[in-house]
Automatic annotation (TrEMBL):
<keyword id="KW-0663">Pyridoxal phosphate</keyword>
<keyword id="KW-0032">Aminotransferase</keyword>
<dbReference type="InterPro" id="IPR005861">
    <property type="entry name" value="HisP_aminotrans"/>
</dbReference>
<comment type="pathway">
    <text>Amino-acid biosynthesis; L-histidine biosynthesis; L-histidine from 5-phospho-alpha-D-ribose 1-diphosphate: step 7/9.</text>
</comment>
<keyword id="KW-0028">Amino-acid biosynthesis</keyword>
<dbReference type="GO" id="GO:0000105">
    <property type="term" value="P:L-histidine biosynthetic process"/>
</dbReference>
<feature type="domain" description="Aminotransferase class I/classII large">
    <location>
        <begin position="74"/>
        <end position="399"/>
    </location>
</feature>
<dbReference type="InterPro" id="IPR015422">
    <property type="entry name" value="PyrdxlP-dep_Trfase_small"/>
</dbReference>
<dbReference type="Pfam" id="PF00155">
    <property type="entry name" value="Aminotran_1_2"/>
</dbReference>
<dbReference type="InterPro" id="IPR015421">
    <property type="entry name" value="PyrdxlP-dep_Trfase_major"/>
</dbReference>
<dbReference type="InterPro" id="IPR015424">
    <property type="entry name" value="PyrdxlP-dep_Trfase"/>
</dbReference>
<protein>
    <recommendedName>
        <fullName>histidinol-phosphate transaminase</fullName>
        <ecNumber>2.6.1.9</ecNumber>
    </recommendedName>
</protein>
<keyword id="KW-0808">Transferase</keyword>
<feature type="region of interest" description="Disordered">
    <location>
        <begin position="409"/>
        <end position="428"/>
    </location>
</feature>
<dbReference type="InterPro" id="IPR004839">
    <property type="entry name" value="Aminotransferase_I/II_large"/>
</dbReference>
<comment type="similarity">
    <text>Belongs to the class-II pyridoxal-phosphate-dependent aminotransferase family.</text>
</comment>
<dbReference type="GO" id="GO:0004400">
    <property type="term" value="F:histidinol-phosphate transaminase activity"/>
</dbReference>
Length: 428
């Protein structure tokens, strides 16, 4: 018998890994649920319905010759390993000259399989396993800690200031960086997930100017296009060699399914990330679809969808406080999601109520949101992704009825749609 023993053979930090969890671990997408859990773009991709030119030039065609064409019969070739054309489109989008007169170039870019690849690649690039550390500011995006644990990198946590500002505690961050030279990276999320708040540019500038710390500030701007125009600091990487700005096409561009993320950085940092990556990490279909989304017509659709979602966000902010049992908005309104307290019958924010609302909404009403009550400073909170107009209408009705039931204010008769949902409930 082989002496193989998984428990002693695998790396201890991987055996102990607490994997990323999402609401879809609990509730499957059965095609009927309203999915307001993962901050996707409810209005769909930034692609015109008839805009995806599919060609079939087949053997002999060169991959990437027309990056905005989906060449199905050319898929036997590996994709372009450098993605210069796609990178130029990203640079054109983020060169606004709002923060610097300098201009981004493809040398400033790493593109990856979602921004999750860049989150992991930076850790592998800068943190020696078992020795170096990552600074994070909870409440924040869960993949930072999962990736850190997978890379055997420990966390230094400097919580954000309490809600509703959820601003950076800049003096504490500066002190932590002064005290511990093994911190190599600081992951800051702006607008924050789950806070929805944009971080202050002057706080970020103070951290970038730390007089003794030898490390990088990474700003995750996954939701930046839902914020005010020109709020992205991507072009600031031309000013600060210790700044990285992460972006993704998964949110405002509505392309979570293609897995395309980017890290803007000083050319020397971008070169390290590019040296480290698998050679063909961006597939040809991903590259073609991303190029279309970043074309003039794609950008126009993205901006229209963002405007539609922001209108529904304003509607939620106006309507939610009218529902009995909905507490305070705990974060900002700079993203396509909102963080709200759920109140028990004593009027207190509480996790039992929030969890019961989360479960009943999904199982009985077919509306999946995200329970965030166990995150730092988010007691009793649900994170609600902004949906389409119809989804928001259904969500508001379902939430009102669910809160009445959970708070013991009477059973509310289900509407026809809910009866169907309950009959077909799909729990993962
Ligand atoms: C703050 C933040 N960063 C990054 C990501 C991951 O994005 P991607 O789909 O590009 O991997 C998410 C996804 O929810 C997120 O909320």
């Amino acid at each position: 018998m082989s002496p193989f023993n998984l428990q002693t053979c695998a790396r201890p930090n991987i055996l102990a890994l607490d994997p990323y969890r999402c609401a879809r671990d609990d509730y499957k997408d059965d095609g009927k649920n309203i999915l307001l859990d993962a901050n996707e773009n409810a209005y769909g991709p930034a692609l015109a319905a008839d805009a995806v030119p599919v060609t079939g030039s087949g053997p002999g065609s060169s991959p990437g010759s027309d990056p905005a064409t989906l060449d199905l019969l050319g898929l036997h070739r590996y994709p372009d390993p450098h993605q210069q054309t796609l990178k130029q489109l990203l640079c054109d989008l983020r060169t606004t000259h709002a923060h610097t007169p300098k201009t981004l170039s493809p040398a400033n870019l790493f593109v990856g399989v979602g921004s999750d690849e860049a989150i992991d690649a930076l850790l592998r690039c800068f943190c020696v396993p078992g020795r170096d550390k990552l600074l994070v500011c909870p409440p924040t995006y869960g993949m930072y800690s999962v990736s850190a644990q997978a890379n055997d990198v420990s966390l230094v946590r400097v919580p954000l200031l309490p809600a509703p500002t959820f601003a950076l505690d800049t003096p504490s961050i500066l002190a932590a960086l002064s005290a511990d030279p093994s911190i190599k990276l600081a992951y800051l999320c702006s607008p924050g997930n789950p806070t929805g708040s944009l971080l202050s540019k002057s706080s970020i500038a103070q951290i970038l100017a730390h007089p003794t710390w030898n490390g990088l500030v990474v700003i995750d701007e996954a939701y930046i296009d839902f914020s005010s125009p020109e709020s992205s600091l991507a072009e600031w990487v031309t000013e600060f060699p210790n700044l990285v700005v992460l972006q993704t096409l998964s949110k405002a561009f509505g392309l979570a399914g293609i897995r395309l993320g980017a890290a803007f950085a000083d050319p020397a940092v971008a070169a390290l990330l590019n040296n480290l990556k698998a050679p063909y990490n961006i597939s040809s279909p991903t590259s073609a679809l991303a190029s279309l989304a970043l074309s003039d017509s794609g950008l126009a659709i993205m901006r229209r969808n963002v405007a539609l979602l922001n209108r529904q966000r304003d509607r939620l902010v106006a309507e939610l406080p009218k529902i009995k049992g909905v507490g305070r908005l705990r974060g900002g309104t700079d993203s396509n999601f909102l963080l709200y307290e759920m109140l028990n019958d004593k009027g207190e924010a509480d996790n039992t109520t929030a969890l019961a609302v989360y479960e009943r909404l999904a199982e009985e009403k077919g509306v999946v949101v995200r329970f965030r009550g166990r995150e730092h400073g988010c007691l009793g909170c649900l994170r609600i992704t902004v949906g389409t107009e119809e989804e928001v209408t259904r969500f508001l009705g379902a939430l009102e009825r669910t809160l009445k039931e959970v708070r013991g204010e009477g059973q509310v008769p289900a509407d026809e749609e809910e009866k169907e949902v309950a009959a077909n409930a799909v729990v993962a």
